[in-house]
Amino acid sequence: MKRISILGSTGSIGRSTLSIVEGYPERFHVAALAAGHNVQAAFEQARRWRPQLLSVTSVADAQDLQSRLQGEGLSEIEVLFGREGNVQVATHPQADFVVSAIVGIAGLEATYEAVKAGKSVGLANKECLVAAGELITAEARRQGKPLLPIDSEHNAVHQCMRGGRMDEVQRIWLTASGGPFLKTPREEFSSLTVEQALNHPTWKMGRRITIDSATLMNKGFEVIEACRLFNLPPKQVQVIVHPQSTIHSMVEFVDGSILAQVSVTDMRLPILYALTYPERIPSDLRFQVSDLRHLDFEPPDVNKFPCLRLAYEAAEAGGAKPVALNAADEVAVGAFLDKHIRFSDIPKVIERVLAETPKQKFESIKEVLQADTEARQNAGRQIEAIRSNSPLPHPASVM
Amino acid sequence: MKRISILGSTGSIGRSTLSIVEGYPERFHVAALAAGHNVQAAFEQARRWRPQLLSVTSVADAQDLQSRLQGEGLSEIEVLFGREGNVQVATHPQADFVVSAIVGIAGLEATYEAVKAGKSVGLANKECLVAAGELITAEARRQGKPLLPIDSEHNAVHQCMRGGRMDEVQRIWLTASGGPFLKTPREEFSSLTVEQALNHPTWKMGRRITIDSATLMNKGFEVIEACRLFNLPPKQVQVIVHPQSTIHSMVEFVDGSILAQVSVTDMRLPILYALTYPERIPSDLRFQVSDLRHLDFEPPDVNKFPCLRLAYEAAEAGGAKPVALNAADEVAVGAFLDKHIRFSDIPKVIERVLAETPKQKFESIKEVLQADTEARQNAGRQIEAIRSNSPLPHPASVM
Q1: DSSP3 helix / strand / coil % (chain A, rounded to 5)
Q2: Which residues contact B151 (CB under 8 A, 6 or more apart)?
Q3: What pTM does this model have?
Q4: Are A250 and A169 in contact, with CB atoms under 8 Å apart?
């Protein structure tokens, strides 16, 4: 019986994790949950899963939830809130396995504490590896516990890696759908609208990650994640555009053999893999090989998608640069979604912030969070400069 | 240092194996060689590799070779011939690893003796698994020694299998190029010429295997081989047509993940894999992922290619049926190449022989060879019956 804590239980990955727990009651048990702002959803999860500990975002939400749980005769469920609540969920003594699925930089501290507490961790939070990958993977190695990737690409790589030893890996090939602008001429990038950018061809996702897919920055983040997770230099992590997203990624070995992983595009599959590793257990998440028809591939165009180049530079430098890359991208994407800057301005903002970010290695998550704050402030300044130098033809409302 | 014996050293696989030994002199050493009819090639291999033992086909060849070796001052190389020579090479006390690459039923006995002698064996001989797979794999399990497949499909499966345990495998997907008649209407099959059938789209191979690729019988043999090698029932071994032959095969696991293997179409790669397993060592046999463009897939048409269906039936029955399948096919293909029967008669001959083959399990290779002889005789009778009932429009010369 594996006892599980979930950071981000009311989000998409959290709910998918619980649907797997539901499907295999003899294997998995919920120890603790950290929910988000949705108190009703947190309340229903508490009623269904009876965790020992439930954390929500604010003190007000916690008080609300506690009284509702008392009304249901569930006062034995401990209720906490905020950063400290997340850390308590992540390090709960009853948990063997922690699913890290809080979105954004907010998930960093609790995930790091889970690793330090010797938990096996399933990673769905991108920032853990992009911004703090060096710290977190070093700690996991010290603890001798696995970090299991819960996203289709790195999970695919993890599976393919089983075909050989780490020192037999020549390179990783991350596949990229290419986003909605794969065939759009570069000259049109400055006039692309938010609506066009949000129209992703294969995946339905949140707004930021959809824009990150359109700029290929998301693939850039994945390059950094792969470098940290599999302890490889950036030149050993390559990207190939594969619009069908059928092959989720590949590993090339020194002898010239390549293993590729194929599966349905359903997040429950990497979650199941992470929860059961090193075992595999039966699921109904079947890919119909007999329905396979055509797979297409092409090399990525880094001139058209400069975010990918910037990610490689940040990956190579390490330390503060990937932190700045992520922070500046989040701010720039927000400004694009608010129609303050052009699509083609996103990489410009990031490039300027990166250039002004000092080379710096981190000893603690606190230092990572500090660098994140500084990069966000700088990104705000760069956006203002772009807006005053080259205002959009139809000025958007002020933030 | 791995000491290697090669059964079939002057054939294509044998020469490729020696080219790998040449590339890694610090890893591999040649212990013994069994050559074919080409005495000059055997002599040159003896001079280059200085094996302790060299076997050729006939006593006359052995005498010729021995005197030539004496002339070179190489009289310390023992020279043998025929069946006994092959067995001595296969069981040579100095050999750790035996490459089984004698074509046809002739390779059976020596390979079985190698397995019985506790050698690790690299299998490039199809008949070992099609005709005697139950005997040979049972013996390898008793010995606790690996049987490593040296052909692109099963080698790919072996690699993908590393992604999980044997009992976590849902099914194997063998890829098939589809042969030259993938798009040819079934109605035209009775008038296809030898020249058309020998024109294989992707691989350059011998005449029999080229025809076997055109009828999909070769894929049928591979289904049987996979069943024996990986101990799976036929329904867990599926075929998918993939004309580019880029993905060499796939393994689907119970959780829904599929691993696929990709590499250059060069036999040296599976040979290298088999020789170094469980390690992988660097090679220059690189597949250029960045050159990937399109991959196509479609289900096989068993109505158009009845040989595939016959192979499944033989795989299911086991024992004498796969022996008869292989023997009847070899005789029927020979008759087609000699223009005695039509392309569409090949499966008819095999089906009739199969129907008249009793269900029988074997205890020894001798019984396998006996059943093989009987099936060949029966195939000859079936061919005569077809020729007298429905002669070809342009009668070919009598055999």
Answers
A1: 50, 15, 35
A2: B124, B126, B222, B267, B270
A3: 0.95
A4: no
- Sign of the C-alpha dihedral computed for residues B314, B316, B317 and B323 taken in this order: positive
> What DSSP line would sit under A107-124, residue for residue?
GHHHHHHHHHTT-EEEE-
User: From first to last of its 399 residues, what are the pLDDT tens digits of chain A?
Assistant: 999 999 999 999 999 999 999 999 999 999 999 999 999 999 999 999 999 999 999 999 999 999 999 999 999 999 999 999 999 999 999 999 999 999 889 899 999 999 999 999 999 999 999 999 999 999 999 999 999 999 999 999 999 999 999 999 999 999 999 999 999 999 999 999 999 999 866 666 789 999 999 999 999 999 999 999 999 999 999 999 999 999 999 999 999 999 999 999 999 999 999 999 999 999 999 999 999 999 999 999 999 999 999 999 999 999 999 999 999 999 999 999 999 999 999 999 999 999 999 999 999 999 999 999 999 999 999 999 999 988 876 544 444
| CA pair distance B347, A161, nearest whole angstrom | 42
Residues 6+ apart with CB under 8 A from A275: A2, A4, A17, A20, A28, A97, A99, A122
Helix, strand or coil for residue B258? strand
Q: Scan for tokens 């570069």, then name that residue.
A: A186
Residue B280: helix, strand or coil by DSSP? Answer: coil
Task: Say yes or no to pLDDT of B397 above 70.
Answer: no
Contact, A179 vs A293, CB < 8 A?
A: no
User: Which of A125, A119, A124, A85 has the alpha carbon at shortest distance from A105?
Assistant: A125
Of A252, A263, A299, nearest to B256 by CB-CB distance is: A263
Angle between helices B108-116 and B133-143 (to 10 degrees): 20
Give the distance from residue A377's alpha carbon to the nearest chain B alpha carbon, in angstroms.
Answer: 39
Residue A278, preceding peptide bond in cis (omega within 30° of 0): yes
CB contacts, 8 Å: A260 with chain B:
247, 259-262
Taking CA atoms, A19 is separated from A25, A204, A217, A268, in Å, by 10, 19, 30, 8
* ipTM > 0.90 for the complex: yes
User: What digits encode the pLDDT tens for the residues B104-141?
Assistant: 898 999 999 999 999 999 999 999 999 999 999 999 99
Q: CA-CA distance, A49 to B358, in Å (whole number)?
A: 60
> Could you give the percent of chain B with pLDDT greater than 90?
92
- Preferred mutation among B155, B257, B265, B287 to probe A, highest tally of A CBs within 10 A: B257
Cβ–Cβ < 8 Å for B23, B42:
no
Q: How far apart are the first and last CA of chain A?
A: 50
Q: Which residues of B touch A256 (CB under 8 A)?
A: 263-264, 269, 283-287
Distance CA A382, CA A374 (A): 12
Q: Which two tokens stand for residue B178?
A: 């589809």
Half-sphere exposure (CA, 13 Å, Cβ side) for B35? 26
Burial class of residue A37 in the structure, from the number of CB atoms within 10 Å of its CB (0-12 exposed, 13-18 middle, 19+ buried): exposed
Bin A8: left if φ > 0, else alpha if -120 < ψ < 50, else beta.
Answer: left
Q: Which two tokens stand for residue A317?
A: 């430098």
Q: A with B: how many residue pairs have Cβ under 8 Å apart?
A: 150
Chain-chain contact of A269 with B261 (C-beta, under 8 angstroms): no
| Parallel/antiparallel/unpaired status of strands A258-262 and A237-241 | unpaired
Cα–Cα distance, A112 to A139 (Å, whole number): 8
- Which of A242, A261, A241 is closest to A251 using CA atoms? A261
CA distances from A137 to A167, A239, B118 (A): 17, 22, 43
User: DSSP strand E in chain A: where?
Assistant: 2-7, 28-34, 53-56, 78-81, 97-100, 120-123, 147-149, 169-176, 237-241, 247-253, 258-262, 294-296
- Give the DSSP letter of residue B359: P
Strands A247-253 and A258-262: antiparallel
A168 contacts B279? CB cut-off 8 A: yes
